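If your schedule permits, I should be very grateful for your opinion on a structural question. The matter concerns a single protein, recorded as an amino acid sequence and a row of backbone structure tokens. Could you please explain, in whatever detail you think fit, how the structure tokens follow from the sequence? I set the record out below, with my sincere thanks for your time.

——
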Amino acid sequence: MRSAPLAVLCLFGCASLELKKIDLSARPPSNVVVYFTVDRSPGGDPVPGLTADKFRITENNRKLSPVDTQQTLLDRRLVATNEVLVLVDMSRAMTKSKALAMLDSAIDNFVLKLGTETTVGVYAFDGGEDIVPIIPLPTAAPAGKSKPAPGETPRLIDFEQRDPSANLHGAVRAALETLTDALEKAPKPLHFGSLVLISAGPDRADRVSQTKMLKAVQRANKFDLFAIGLGPDVDKDEIKQIGRTFTVLEPELTGVKRQLDAMADRLLQRARRFYLLSYCSPARRGKRLLKIEATAADGASGTLETKFDAEGFGPKCDPETQPSFEKQAPATEEEETTPPPPPPKRKRSSG
């Protein structure tokens, strides 16, 4: 019995791909560079690892030869800063548990694994007013004070607890401010930020109200927010509100290593779903309708459409040229723009 063609099978079983444009640069001599993401649809699962030959480019509905256009994928880190701030609960609930050594080791592995794709900062909180940098984000303003031994890298296990209570609400708000500050100072034009909260219980200090904390979370709609709730004492509803992108609840504190390893894999996949596609356009003038079609190994496909102006284009294009994007405010690929309010209706005159 002959098997059905892949295209037929996909008609009934394969998810499609969703391509989202982040930014586009079209500059003489004829360089076109597009920064975008690829996800499964429905579900939104990231699609990492596509090679340049998995993308087909057309301009004004004419297919372009990947050889003639020198189509290539550039390193996304040329134009984008992707920073991850890990916020760790170091209140009594964590420091008096058997999980502290496991947490310290798991954080090391997390930073090592993500370090190839992102910049990772680690901050701790207890009942004190501020958060304490263990591994500070490079461009962030100082937050609290860390006390590493001379000549040593700070470690979570060496954290000196100031107050055994838990200032969860204040810490989340301060972490979002720290992440925003770090990305605003990053020199690259495109900025993406993620917060990963590891919490072992509810807010106990009551330094900042839940309402104010959740308002800060809502304002940070340009960031991806993840949360790991450890142990039986976490406020499950609150943790899910903080970790709006993805939340996991682990009943045992000793499960922190497994959950943090899985979280690192999740963030890696999300980081690798970004693509920086560069090619040399054959156009020499006029508006161009650009279509990029991506095809995954199982045959699932999706298309991105955008426009650019080829006025002034000419020969001598090098697709490896450093892309030039305008610097933007910190953002994520999921940022939604709010449409302007409709103009007020004119009152009809009675005369």
